[in-house]
Amino acid sequence: MRALLSVDDKTGLVAFARGLQEIGWELIATDGTLAALAAEGITARSVEDVTGSPVLLGGRVKTLHPKIHAAILAKRSDASHAADLERESIVPIDLVAANLYPFQRAAASGVTGDALLEKIDIGGLTLLRAAAKNHLDVVVVSRPERYVAILEELRERGSVSTETRRQLAAEAFSHTAAYDATIASRLSAAAGVSFPQDLTLSLEKVRDLRYGENPHQQAAFYRVRGENGAMTSMEQLHGKATSFNNMLDINSAWRMVTDFTQPTVAIVKHQNPCGIASETTIAKAYGRAFLCDSVSAFGGIVGCNRPVSAELARALQDTFYEAIIAPGYADDALPLLRERRNLEILAVPGYDPKRGRTDKGALDIKRVSGGVLVQTPDDSAPEESNFKAVTERHPTLEELTDLIFAWRCVRHVTSNGIVLVKGLATVGVGPGQLSRVVAVEVAVRKAGENARLAVMASDAYFPFPDGIEVAARAGVTAIIQPGGSLRDQMMIDTANRHRMAMLFTGRRHFKH
Predict the structure, then answer these.
(1) 464-492: per-residue pLDDT in tens?
(2) What CATH number belongs to 384-504?
(3) Per the residue annotation, which of 81, 133, 240, 498 is the catalytic one?
């Protein structure tokens, strides 16, 4: 029996190769793998020795040879294949272990141009595909973590089962497909193409989730290769395994707070904020965010853009939360939080509030029946210089500060969405309503007396003045909205009648 080893990732290689030799297998290896084995005293034949041909083009052509690929692709049950092998003096290869040049790692480290192109594997990819195609006769291994189990099967039964071979072949094809998808995505981006004719995504499973949207549903979390999002780098420090719904809300909470440079806290339920606030300390920000809707906060997710202090940890003890996500935790805060057995404590190490999120620009993808919808993200920061005061009264400096804050908040609220803000804290949120006036009524009802002297943000224009009338009666003094309605002048006249200031942004923030 013969095995061909050609790996960039040398994890577990020596033990695997030694194990194969111990049960009588002959080893063939490409240059780098051969050197790694020789350094450990393991003997293997070189590919050049098998093919009788030298390595060409500086290593671009090594295994691309009939004496390699015929040895892999020959069907053992086909007499004509056997005759071809005998005529050409080709000995079959029974196992191929290969993994590929680290294209993604090179790209992430800043390698570009010709240097990056050299990280595109050709020979290894071809070896895997050939072995996977002929998996009933050839064992194909694309993942080092499979080495131990394969050796166990070979030792116990003398061969690898058909079921295992099929699983390994599927893994190999998934591996090569993901590899090509990563390259295609990188080259499309380099060419400035956002929406190529064939959009290929490479997904890698990060973890299984506790369950899906409901306990009878199964779920898992996959990362998009090539993207550096917080959900893939976060570390769980405590608590039960994360569920599908919690992951959605954790992501929403993190996206909300990382929109702000000041210490900011968001409390999230069903991907909508129960409250968002910025303050001088993270504990004060939590207190003000909590006051926005203390009832809905129960069972929610807390997001912080600063490390959690002991003061904040103590404040959290009075309310049940599913999870908290933050850049880190003070040494005296973690023991307090860990007293709550089921609280999911999540950290995003290395987060810098000055840089903001690391996944800006990543395409937004939503699943529909039979396909996906793809769009560029609604990531751009407010362009205050483009805001236009359209009413007789312009906003005061205090109102303007709150209006800008509210405009950042409202893009995280599902449409139709309304946010009331006072002193850099939401005091009322009206999310996901079927009409805009109802969204205003919900926000005003949540705010109560806090609606007086607050400002209001609307994610889209007001089609009728009724929403503005409701806000005015509640005591709202200023409004920020995109504008663009055929009845804009009616909205302006209504605001003027109530001595309200109003800004048009020229940009809508629907979130469906």
Answers:
(1) 999 999 999 999 999 999 999 999 999 99
(2) 3.40.140.20
(3) 133
